Amino acid sequence: MRIRAGFAAFLVRGIVSAAVAAAGATAATPREPASAAPAARVPDRAPAPDPPLEAITYPSDGLRITGWLCKPDGPGPFPLVLVNHGGFELARTVGPLLGLFARLGYVAVASDYRGVGGSEGRRELAKGEVSDVLNAIVFARGFSYVDGRRVVMWGHSHGGCIALLAAARAPDIVAVVTIGAPVELAECYRHWVRTVERVPVLKPLIGVSLHVGGTPNQVPDAWKLRSPLYVAGRIKCPVLMVQGGKDDAVPPAQARRMVAALQAAGNRDARLLFDAEAGHVLDAKAYERLGNQMINFLNEQVGLPPTGRPDKKL
Fold first, then answer.
1. Coil, strand or helix: which one is 18?
2. Are 291 and 3 contacting, i.e. CB atoms less than 8 angstroms apart?
3. What residues in the chain have per-residue pLDDT under 70?
4. Which CATH number does the domain 4-32+47-184+227-302 belong to among 3.90.1150.10, 3.40.50.1820, 2.60.40.200, 2.60.40.10?
5. Interior CA angle at 153 toward 152 and 157, to 5°?
6. Would you call 249 helix, strand, or coil by DSSP?
7. Rounded Cα–Cα distance for residues 181 and 215 (Å)
8. Which of 82, 228, 257, 281 is packed most tightly, with the most Cβ within 10 A?
9. 297 alpha-carbon distance from chain centroid
């Protein structure tokens, strides 16, 4: 399957698909989602329709956490990918990515995280949220169509930070892809404070100190606890960090430091994919350049065939 068109198209049509699916989805706690209906015939060049999204609810640290699941048609077992959204957005914002992964042969799950959407609890910033994605894995492994031995994570920004921290706690995660992931949060916070006048869009990020319990100067240990850089030695799985040179939220040096720390700790499969033109949020053109490399990195680890045109080797 070629995913070049899929990556560009999902950014537009996927938002509509997710909203329609959300309107008709039912909660699973846990029960097996209905299989996707057979797709109608479409022109050869048109992207295949995404499988439907299913709302899920699962327990995490005594809290009720909500999210979404999307699966390929068929009995499986399929590899599992956790798609960790950025910030404190709703999980349904990555609905198009869930559909894309399902078309590629994954069961795809996104957690709302605690304090977001219909989830109980309060927002903690890369702390309790790590437990939420790990407990989403436990939940998904309860379905017969999930191959619990083939679990990967994909995360953007806050979600990438969560993915790295989760991999440090769960050695059975077999690969991680991050996009614009902060790895030393105190340094990021100080960067936001320094540059907020030049880049006003960063102003809301300064408020995340409320979820940590204070600024880095006030509670330094709390910020260190949330920073994957300090647990790099415990991450043994292959890691691909995607970083844009025009990222205003996360200084590109953070990805370089993290990959260097992983490699210094003996992780020979830690790689940096740097794109000088990409920002913090990848646009359609960036996905055109980088999409197949990210997907194929995960596919290689779970035994799925490569997708799209041959990409430059990482």
1. helix
2. yes
3. 1-49, 308-314
4. 3.40.50.1820
5. 165
6. coil
7. 20
8. 228
9. 14
